Amino acid sequence: MKSVLFFFLLLFVFSCNSVRQNNLFLQKKIPASELREDVDFTYKKLKRFHPNLYWYISKPQLDKKFDSLKKIITEPLTPNQFYLKLSPVIASIKEGHLRLRTFPRQYSKSEQKELKTKKPLFAMMEYKIIDNRMFVTDNKQNFGNIKPGTEILKINNENISDLTQRYRRLFSSDGYNKTFQKYFINLTFFNYYTLENGFLDSAKLLTKLDNKVSEIIIRRQKKTEQELTKEKVQPKVTSFQKIQDYDLDSKSYNRSLKFLSSDSSIAYIKIKTFSATLSKAFYSESFSKIRKAGSVYLILDIRDNLGGSLSEINTLYSYLSDKKFTLIKVPEMTSKTSGMHQNYFRGQTVFSSIFMAIGYPFFLAGNGTWLLFSDRLKLEY
């Protein structure tokens, strides 16, 4: 029993130390000379491991972007400040699955506990970004008395148009496709804003509705005792809901099947995202129902679906084709040993690394994801 208690005590100490080290790292400014070395390191790794680096951008153009970046880095920067400089260069390669990942601030157990007692700030409403304008589309709790249809012009004196233009430069889709960006900016806008400004307890919004411009202060609110109690007692998810990947927070299904006509001749499947959660069971059950109903037509609704699990996509396609198919090609690499040059355990504790070592080979086999690592930033493609 003593050995078990000692193990958990050791685990707690390592966890606290990891949080502290991570946050100190985020605050520390890295010398400009070292950042320029990281820029060179990044380009070197891309040229070594990327099989089609100059597919959408010529070598002289990309050379110029990396050289220009080094010239403007003249002062020390924090890791995430450096991310905002380097990320647009990576995005210029125009490969959707190649992007930098940030180092988020970590929170101690006590901080996490405190955050759980508060409501979100910006996430209390739903938004739609059209071009470089932001509109409120839903506000179920009437947060800040802001009505749907309201345009948000500024957040804390920063123009929304300036923010969206800045954030759009941090990611790309494949090639010259523009469809992905308009959806992705809606998903990530406040992630980027929080990266720059941290978790705020209040914000000043400049809004416009019916040609009337107003200044509104929104504040993070404490959850009531009733709300906290309700969160603790979550309703049980049924097996039927699990198969349809039911989300308790939004009270909606990720995937669903229904028939649109009284004679069941038209089947309709809606898929919000490919999550892989019990997807094989869902498609097996759904297509069995479709066959038994004798449906003639199938409407597959994947509007606003940005992708996700290759495994689920492969499973779905297997029901749509009566021929052998290859949906996912074998990963292309510059050499047979490319996969050996990966630091799978960066950012992990001693204990989590043990579990990562066991599970990671299976993860790679299932997802075909290859990682490149710099000393301070991580590239994923």
From TrEMBL:
Record domain Tail specific protease: where: 266-326
Record-level GO BP terms: proteolysis
Domain of life, per lineage: Bacteria
Matching PROSITE patterns: PROKAR_LIPOPROTEIN
Transmembrane segments: 350-373
Gene3D superfamilies: 2-enoyl-CoA Hydratase, Chain A, domain 1
Keywords tagged on the record: Membrane, Signal, Transmembrane, Transmembrane helix
Leader sequence residues: 1-18
A Pfam family that the UniProt record links to this protein: Peptidase_S41
GO molecular function, one term: serine-type peptidase activity
Protein name from the UniProt record: Peptidase S41
Organism of derivation: Epilithonimonas vandammei
